[in-house]
Amino acid sequence: MLFKAPAKALFIAIAMGAALSGTAFARDQVISASLAQPAAQTQFVANSAVWSCEGQSCVARTSQSATVRTCRQFVREAGVAVTAFGPENAPLTTEALAQCNEGIAPEVQQAQN
Description:
By secondary structure, the chain is of the alpha+beta class. Helix content is 35%, strand content 25%. It contains 3 helices and 5 strands.
């Protein structure tokens, strides 16, 4: 069946709108990170998200998933190990956190005389 010009244009517009709407409906999620110690910075960018930290807690709104890779990038920017990372309903496992924190030197306590 052949479409007439106005109907064809409308069909194309609807099809393109449906194809492009997937990203419009993607919602950013809130990811939180619990730190082993306070970060030196209270705000920084990691994984294309702006992280805000207060004490040993950081949060960001992002479309990125909480993975070992995104956690490692966060840890590099924060400069401290994490004790928890991810959205409230799906935090990283203990094993994933261990992989995330690999390479972060433990804090060394100096004796005071």
